[in-house]
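Fold it.
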Amino acid sequence: MALEDAARANSGIRLMVIAVVAVPLLFALSGLAIRYAAFVSLSADPSLTAYARALCRWDCKWYVDLSEQGYERFPIPNHNNIGRWGFFPLYPMLVAAIRSVLPFPTIVIATMASVACGYASCLVAWPLLEKNVRAYVLYCAFLLSGPFSFYFATFMTEPLFVLVTSCLFLALKRSNYLAAGLSCALLSATRLVGVLAVFAIVIRMFEEHRQMGGSAIAFPRWLLSRPDLIIAILISPAGLFAYTLFLHVTVGDGFAFAHVQRAFGRVAGNPLLFVWDGLSYHPNASWLPTAPQWSAMAAIAGLALAGVLAVRRQYGAALFCALALILPLTTNLASMVRYVVGLAPLTMLTASLLSTSRLTFAAAVIALPVACYFMTIAWLGDYLALV
C-alpha cells in the first residue's frame, strides 16, 4: 500500500509538471494564431516574416536599429537627429548575440526571443503564484494570448523585463539575495526603472531581520554584519552604472539617456497634473475614451493595484511597482499602458484576483483571447494609447 501511495504521488507530480509546462505552450501557440489572424485580415502578404515586421511598431523600430547599428556618436549625417541613448542596451545586445549565430533577420530573432521570454516568465511565475492553477492559467493567457500579448511577441523590452523581474522576486521569496541583486543589475540594464527593484531587496532583508526577532534600530548593524547582503545591494545598480560609464566614454555625457528624453517630448512636470490633463482630454463628442484618457486610467489602475499589494503586505513589490510608474509619470503619460502591463507583480495580482471565483475565471479565460484579436488590430493600426 505504501508503494502504491508513493507511485500515485509520483504520478501526480509528473502530471502537474506536464501541465505547468504545457499550459503556457498552448497559450503561446493560440496567441500566435490569433495575432496572425488579425494581421492577415489587414495585410496582403501572409508570410511569417511580414507578420513579424508588421508587429514591429513604435519603440520596436528603435530597438531593431540599436541591435543592428549600436549607439551613435551624435551627430551622424543623414540620420535621425534623435539619439538612441534613451533605449537601454541589454535586450538589443542579447538579440544581436543570437543573430550572430542564427541566419535570420533581426526582427524574426527578436520575435522568437520575446515569445521565449514570455514562456519562461510563466514558468517562473508558477511558484510566485503559490501554485494556484487557475491564477497560473490566467497569467499565462494574459502574457501569451491576452489583449496586450503583442508587447511580448515583438522587439520590446517588456518580455525580458517581466522575466527578470519574476526571477528577482522568486529569488527574494527564497531569500537568495545574491541572485536577487544580479537580477536587479540585469533589470537596470534593461530599463531605467529596473534599478528601483533594489528597494524591494532591502525591504525583504528588513522583513527577514524582523522575523528573526531583530529590532528596526538594529537593522543597519545586522546588515553590515552580512557581507552577502551588502554585495547584493552594491551589485543591484551595476547595469545602470555600466551603461552610464559607456555613455560617458563614447558620447561624453553619462546621462544622455535622460537628457535625450526632451527630444521625445518628455519634460519633467507634476504627475498629478499629467493624469488630470489626460482624464479631461476629450475634444470630440464620441463616447469612446481618448488615448490620453486610456493612459491616465492605466496609470490610476496600476497605482491602485500597487496599493492592493501593500494591503496584502507585499511591501517590496508594492513600492517597486509604484515607483516604476511614478517615475515615467513625472514626464508625461506616454507608454503608460505598456508600463503597467510590463510590471509582473501587478499582472500576477490581477490573475490571482480574477481566479478567486469560477465565474470570473471562466469569463477571463474567454475574454482574454477574444480581446487579443481586436487589440492586435489596434496595435497594427498605430493606436496611440498602446505606444
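The chain has a mean pLDDT of 92.
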